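W.,

You were right to be curious about this one. When I first looked at the sequence I had no strong expectations either way, so I just let the prediction run and decided to look at it fresh. Below is the sequence, 151 residues in total, followed by the output.
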Amino acid sequence: MKIGIVLPLSLLMLGAMASSSALELPSQKPGLWKITMTNGKTPGGPRSFTMCQDVASIAASRASADAHIKNDCTAKSSLRKDGDNWIADAECTFSGMHVTSHSVTTVHGDDSFHTQVNSTMNGKTDVMTMDNVRIGACKPGQKVGVPLVGP
């Protein structure tokens, strides 16, 4: 699966659903973020990459997510906050595939969050976790929004 497709699905869902509710999402600090995704079905174990994000790219991601959720998901999609947890449930169709998902994102300030996504697609269930941690300032010359795989 391409990195661009799996970029924090939880944030996409949260951003889009929050825009249609009275909930205000937690802020995300600009800078260099390390994203580690774990899925029991992925050969070789967890996948990690870093990405430089600025205020504009964070806002653009939320706007893009909002458009995708509005176009691809049903009215059954929901978002609620319980303490530091954001719980999202969605039924969406992407490229002709129906996906039902339940995610719990635990927010740790504006520089760290953990997400577990349980999804069902074409009758197959999957569990993926994502850990997102801000590791500092973007590297000189690093392009905003371009994922870098490796150290």
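Here's what jumped out at me. The longest strand covers residues 124-136. And, maybe more interesting for your project: Residues 1-20 have pLDDT under 50 and may be disordered.

Coffee later to discuss?

I.
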